[in-house]
Every structure is written in C-alpha cells, then in structure tokens.
C-alpha cells in the first residue's frame, strides 16, 4: 500500500485573493518577515499497488484528470510506502 | 413560436433546475423535461440546459465532479454533433471543467458571495443565444455566486475576442465597461461566452430568475427567446435553400 500526498496550488501567475487576505491578517497580527502567502489544497490518497513507480503513475493521472485543473492550477506530490 | 424540446439536467445539488423548467414550460410553453445526472440518454431533446446550483456540493472545484456524471458523456457527444447547450452559473462552470468552453473559475476577487442584479452589455447579438438582443444593449440580470471569477490565459482571451465569442460583459448602467462594474474580478469583465461552433454558451448570470413579469424584471427572457427563435430561423433558412 502506498500513500500519496498531493498539493494543488493556483498557478503563480494568477492572483490568489485568499492568500492575500490571510497575508494581510498575519501582518495585522504583527508578524514580520512574511512576504507572500498562497493557499492551496492538500490531498491524501491511499493506493493499493505493487511498486512506487505505478503509485506515482496513478497519482499523476489522478491529478491530471481530476484533482487539478490545468487551466489555473499546478500540482506536486510525493509517494511513500505504508 | 416553435415548440422545441428542452432538457434540464438535474445533478445532486442543482437548485435552479426548477426555475429553468418553469420558465421554459410555463412561460414559454415549450416541451420541457428533467434529465437525471445518471441518465445515459438525452431523450431526444433539442436543447440541453445545465442549471445553476452547487452540483456535488462544489467539492474539489465547482463543476469538477459533475463533469464526470454519466449524462455529461451524452451532453459532450450531443454538443459535438452541433446540439445546443446552455450552461447557467454552475452549468457554465461545468462546461468549462468539461472542456466544452475554454477557461476556468476562481474565487471571487473580494472573496464574497455576490447575490445582486448586475448590468450586462450584449457584445454580440448575431448568435442563436442573443439574436433577440441588440448589440450594445444593457440587460439587468441577477448573479448569485462565490466563484464566478472567470480566468483564461491571454491567448484564449485573444481568440475569444477575435471570433466575437464573448457574448456578455459586466458593465455600468450606461453600458461602459469599468472595473467597478465587475462583481467578481473576471478577466475582461467576461460574464458569458460561446464555443467556437456557436452551439454551446455559458453565462454566470441567471436569466431564468429574470424571466417572469411577477418578478418585475424580464430581461432574461431575451436569451430564452433568442434560443427558441433561432430554431425557426434555421428552419426558414433550410426552406430557402431547398427552394
């Protein structure tokens, strides 16, 4: 069994109003040094397969087909044996 | 007025399906039926309406899961054969997720859910969805969404412009396109677009909520009227070509 950990984020070139609002809130808390905040999604997926390679392939396909929208989002993932 | 067959798709979470049904059936006297998202046939309808709402709870992304409903396979094939499809609000989001229209939707720029009347400028009145309008005419139609911030890359926007596929833009009451009349941050104030072949249209505003005199505003009727009349015109053109 493998566990895939996936992050989906709005593409860097696109303004992320949620991240901006949170950034403002952090600044108003008096926290210094934070120059940018971006908000995305975190997805965990358990995969029953034999090899790391096939777990990665399944994860990539899931990201491309459904989990991320290529028009506006990027995805990254890691796969570990559990 | 001709009698066309309309099918209104019902996804779990659709909530404007009855509004659309009511306008078409009662107000325009069209043969209208509901199509369940698990159906694998469109039942011979002439027009498919993807209504507003929150299909599948807007989980993951608006329209992302509805796009894989069994009925969407049929809708995609139908659109590919030139069948007429209208997506309203969530329906527009589903059409984009399904790749039947370009672009995608982000959270509204100011992060708030906006439920209000907006002014829409008709940018192209030579389509089957806007034929009863005048170019430059301003329609007042309500919006109700939290994720209506239309996004497409520069190249896509240029193509939409070039082929006059932007049908509606958010505007001021006098028709001027301004940043302050843009309720959600949509690129280029886009409120509604058409596909390349001219048979699939999506718009965020709700014409079905502005189509009954009882609700005081009937600007939305122009879109449904355009659509219904477009079938007559097509028949007339076909007749002419035969004679």
Chain oligomer state: heterodimer
Give me the number of helical elements of chain A. 2
The CATH superfamily name of chain B is: Class I glutamine amidotransferase (GATase) domain
Largest sheet of chain A: 3 strands, antiparallel
Question: Would you count the extended β strands of chain B for me?
Answer: 11
**Based on helices, strands and strand pairing, what is the structural class of chain B?**
alpha/beta
CATH architecture of chain A: 2-Layer Sandwich
Round the mean pLDDT of chain B to the nearest integer and report it: 94
- Label the overall shape of chain A: elongated
Span between termini of chain B: 23 Å
Q: Specify the helix fraction band of chain B.
A: 25-40%
Strands across the major sheet of chain B, in which order? 2-1-3-4-11-10-9-6-7
Specify the CATH class of chain B: Alpha Beta
Strand percentage of chain B lies at 15-25%
CATH fold-level assignment of chain B: Rossmann fold
- What is the string of SSEs of chain A from the N terminus onward? EHEHE
Supply Rg of chain B.
Answer: 17 Å
Low-confidence stretches of chain A: none
CATH superfamily of chain A: Phosphoribosylformylglycinamidine synthase subunit PurS
The number of domains of chain B is: 1
Please tally the helical runs of chain B, counting DSSP H or I stretches of 4 or more residues: 5
């Amino acid at each position: 069994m493998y566990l895939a950990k996936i992050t989906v984020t709005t593409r860097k070139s696109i303004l992320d109003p949620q991240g901006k609002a949170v950034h403002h809130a952090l600044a108003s808390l008096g926290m210094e040094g934070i120059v940018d905040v971006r908000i995305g999604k975190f997805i965990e997926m358990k995969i029953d397969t034999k090899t790391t390679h096939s777990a990665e392939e399944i994860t990539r396909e899931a990201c491309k087909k459904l989990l991320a929208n290529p028009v506006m989002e990027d995805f990254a993932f890691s796969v570990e044996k559990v | 007025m001709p009698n066309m067959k309309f099918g209104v798709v019902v996804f779990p979470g659709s909530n404007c399906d009855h509004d659309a049904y009511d306008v078409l059936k009662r107000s325009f006297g069209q043969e209208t039926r509901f199509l369940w998202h698990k159906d694998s046939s469109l039942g011979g309808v002439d027009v498919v309406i993807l209504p507003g709402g929150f299909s599948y709870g807007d989980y993951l992304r608006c329209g992302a899961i509805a796009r894989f409903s069994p009925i969407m396979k049929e809708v995609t094939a139908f659109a590919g054969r030139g069948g007429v499809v209208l997506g309203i609000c969530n329906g527009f989001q589903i059409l984009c997720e399904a790749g039947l229209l370009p672009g995608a939707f982000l959270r509204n720029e100011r992060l708030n859910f906006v439920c209000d009347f907006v002014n829409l400028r008709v940018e192209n009145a030579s389509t089957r969805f806007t034929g009863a309008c005048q170019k430059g005419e301003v329609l007042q139609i309500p919006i109700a969404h939290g994720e209506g911030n239309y996004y497409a890359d520069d190249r896509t926007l240029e193509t939409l412009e070039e082929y006059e596929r932007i049908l509606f833009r958010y505007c001021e009451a006098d028709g001027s396109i301004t940043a302050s009349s843009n309720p959600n941050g949509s690129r280029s104030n886009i409120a509604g677009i058409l596909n390349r072949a001219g048979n699939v249209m999506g718009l965020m505003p709700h014409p079905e909520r502005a189509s009954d005199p009882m609700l005081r505003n009937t600007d939305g009727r122009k879109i449904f009227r355009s659509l219904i009349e477009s079938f007559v015109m097509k028949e007339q053109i076909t007749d002419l070509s035969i004679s």
